[in-house]
Structures are given as structure tokens and as C-alpha cells.
Automatic annotation (TrEMBL):
The lineage of its organism: Eukaryota, Viridiplantae, Streptophyta, Embryophyta, Tracheophyta. This is NAD-dependent epimerase/dehydratase domain-containing protein. Gene3D superfamilies: NAD(P)-binding Rossmann-like Domain. Coiled coil: none annotated. Keywords: NADP, Oxidoreductase. It comes from Mikania micrantha. InterPro entries: Epimerase_deHydtase (IPR001509), NAD(P)-bd_dom_sf (IPR036291), NAD(P)_dehydrat-like (IPR050425). The keyword Lipid metabolism does not apply. Residues 13-254 form the NAD-dependent epimerase/dehydratase domain. PANTHER family: CINNAMOYL-COA REDUCTASE-LIKE PROTEIN, NAD DEPENDENT EPIMERASE/DEHYDRATASE. GO terms for molecular function: oxidoreductase activity, acting on the CH-OH group of donors, NAD or NADP as acceptor. The keyword Repressor does not apply.
Length: 329
């Protein structure tokens, strides 16, 4: 047992999407805090989903893995049975072109959320932390340009449909479904809205947000999206934010989780400054014209005690992890 490992406690919690990038960090921190964790994976036979979790400290005695499909209610019930809290992270996370938005993104995100919340309610779970996204906050083109975006701001569904932005639409509709369920059925939920999550990678595979920084470094990708903003955030901060809003019963509503609200150009310039050996393209200062920068995006979480990792550290931890995992030379 390492120094950081807490005494085992009786409480069981369930993490859906436990095999994923953020999920793995959350499982690790929960085990460190002494929880017993039911973590879900999509395929128990796939070692790429299970091995890194089974190797975590405390896993041998306090981690149980469950195979679920978000559209299969019974598989979810099995994973949540016995848990007093649920962290619902599982959701298809891609910004790539999809062929069938309904089956690939919208149904698992929305119906999956409803299935998880229904099971949680049926099984008497006391609190569910729902992982939404800054993608449920932007794009929001009608938001006044002289006011920083905040938890009060919601993604414009019509704009997403018109521009075929299916991932933000899936996150927005899933979060709205969660709030509706909570209101109608009286289930205690709290929401975390992370920005672009980066930092050390625990699974052997690379997720969508780490691909973004890899693409910037390897291919000089300068694609920016109008009406979005860059809200870099350290993966460990995101995992910790989930635990903070779970453990603090005073935490309510949505919680934006970002190092800052910034422009993509700010991020690219910082990567170029820290790693001059990579050929990072120079971008105009304002890559998201009309967007107000802010350092207070995560105020609600900071008030709960979250210390936000600096952008410099986020980038360093990401690049070093990409190198050590062999994604970057
Ligand atoms: N990464 C970011 O920058 C970011 C920012 C804001 C919000 N989020 C949200 O955070 C959550 C986790 O994202 P991540 O970055 O950790 O992505 P990830 O590594 O792709 O993890 C997603 C997890 O969901 C599981 N999953 C997906 N579809 C499923 C299905 N139909 N049935 C069962 N499980 C399914 C995945 O299983 P497999 O591994 O087997 O596919 C994986 O464990 C998502 O809700 C995402 O929208 C991410």
C-alpha cells in the first residue's frame, strides 16, 4: 500500500466507462480513496480495456469489472447493484465524421443516460455524477460576446443540427435528459462539464482529446471551429472534480471544468513555446473572434477546493505521456 492509499471503506460506487481515458483516472483516484469500484467496460475479453485497470493499486481486492452496453438495461443494472453512488461517463466520444449519428452517437448518449439513471433510481443510489461536457455549453452563437461563457449557457441545438455537429448535440441532449429525469423522478444528480481533457494516458489506446494535441504536433493541424472555445483541463483535475461534487452534498447543478476559457491560438502558442523542436504553426491571436477569455470558468469547482493545474503542466504531462506511450517521438 502506498502512502497516498486511504483505508478501505465500505462504500461501493459504479463508474460507467471505467476503461476510458477519464474513467481510468477516476477509477484510480477512487481506489486510492478507499472506495470499492464497479467499473464498466464494453468488452471484458478485450485486454486493452481491462489490463490497465486490473494493474491499479487496490484493484485486486476492491475493483470489479462489468461488461455493459449502454442500450442494454439489464447489463447496467448488474453493474450498479450494491452501489451507493454512480459516475456516468460512458458515452461515445468522437469528433470524427459519423455515418449514422442516431445509432453511433445520439442513442447511446441519450438512451444510455436514461438507462443508467433509471437503474440508479430503481436501485436506491443516493447521488449520480453525470459527465457532460463544455460541448453542452458551446457552440452557443447567441451568447453575448461581452459576457464570459458559464454554466448558464447552453449549446444551440438548431446550430448543431444545421452544421451536423453530432457530438455536441449528443452531449447537450443527454445532459438535458438527465436534468429532466432528475426533476421528474427526484433523483439527486450533479453534472461536470469538462473542456478538452489532456494529460497522462492510462489505457493503451488514445482517445479523441489526446488525438487533438497529437494532431497539432504531428500534422500542424490548425483547424478551429467557430463558436467553440478551448478549455484545456488536466485529466487528473477532471477525475478529482467528479469526486468533489460527489462527496460534497452542497455541490449542485453544472460545473464547468477548464483551466481557462481561451482561444485555440493561445493553446497552440503555448505548445510552440514549450516544445520549439516541433513545427507548430503560428496562428492569429484571436482564433475564436468575439469570444471572451476567462480564468474563472471553473469557479464553482475551485470554491469546492479544486486546484486547477496550469496550462503549461497540462501540455508537458500530455506530451511526455504521448512520448512514453510511443504515440510521439
Ligand atoms: N476527453 C474529453 O476531452 C472530454 C471532454 C468533455 C467530456 N468528455 C466526456 O467524458 C466521458 C469520457 O470520455 P473519454 O475522453 O474518457 O472518452 P473514452 O476514452 O472514449 O471513454 C468513453 C468510455 O465510454 C465507453 N462507451 C462508449 N460507448 C459505449 C456503449 N455503447 N456502451 C458501453 N460503454 C460505452 C467506452 O468504452 P470502450 O472503451 O470500450 O469504447 C469508454 O470506456 C464521455 O462522456 C465524454 O463525452 C470527454
Amino acid at each position: 500500500m502506498t502512502e497516498k492509499m486511504a483505508e478501505p471503506r465500505a462504500e461501493v460506487v459504479c463508474v460507467t466507462g471505467g476503461s476510458g481515458y477519464i474513467g481510468s483516472w477516476l477509477v484510480r483516484l477512487l481506489l486510492d480513496r478507499g472506495y470499492t469500484v464497479n467499473a464498466t467496460v464494453k468488452d471484458l475479453k478485450d485486454e486493452k480495456e481491462t489490463k490497465h485497470l486490473e494493474a491499479l493499486e487496490g484493484a485486486e481486492s476492491r475493483l470489479r469489472l462489468f461488461q455493459i452496453d449502454l442500450l442494454d438495461y439489464d447489463s447496467i443494472v448488474a453493474a450498479i447493484t450494491g452501489a451507493s453512488g454512480v459516475f456516468h461517463l460512458a458515452s461515445p466520444c468522437t469528433v470524427d465524421q459519423v455515418h449514422d449519428p442516431e445509432s453511433e452517437l445520439l442513442a447511446p448518449a441519450i438512451k444510455g443516460t436514461n438507462n443508467v439513471l433509471t437503474a440508479a433510481k430503481e436501485l436506491g443510489v443516493k447521488r449520480v455524477v453525470v459527465t457532460s461536457s463544455v460541448s453542452a455549453i458551446v457552440p452557443s452563437p447567441s451568447w453575448p460576446s461581452d459576457v464570459p461563457k458559464s454554466e448558464d449557457c447552453w449549446t444551440d441545438e438548431g446550430y448543431c443540427k444545421q452544421k451536423e455537429l453530432w457530438y455536441p448535440l449528443s452531449k447537450t441532449l443527454a445532459e438535458k435528459a438527465a436534468w429532466e429525469f432528475s426533476k421528474e423522478k427526484g433523483l439527486d444528480i450533479v453534472v461536470v462539464n469538462p473542456g478538452t481533457v489532456m494529460g497522462p494516458i492510462l489505457p493503451p489506446t488514445i482517445n479523441a482529446s489526446m488525438q487533438m494535441i497529437l494532431l497539432l504536433i504531428q500534422a500542424g493541424c490548425t483547424q478551429t471551429y467557430e463558436n467553440f472555445f478551448m478549455g484545456s483541463v488536466h485529466v487528473k483535475d477532471v477525475a478529482l472534480a467528479h469526486i468533489l461534487v460527489y462527496e460534497n452534498t452542497s455541490a449542485t447543478g453544472r460545473h464547468m471544468c477548464v483551466e481557462s476559457i481561451s482561444h485555440y491560438g493561445d493553446f497552440a502558442a503555448k505548445v510552440a513555446e514549450l516544445y520549439p523542436e516541433y513545427n507548430i504553426p503560428r496562428l492569429p491571436k484571436d482564433t475564436q473572434p468575439g469570444l471572451m477569455r476567462s480564468k474563472n470558468g471553473s469557479k464553482k469547482l475551485m470554491d469546492l477546493g479544486l486546484e486547477i493545474t496550469s496550462l503549461e503542466q497540462i501540455i508537458r504531462d500530455s506530451v511526455e505521456s504521448l512520448k512514453s506511450k510511443g504515440f510521439l517521438s
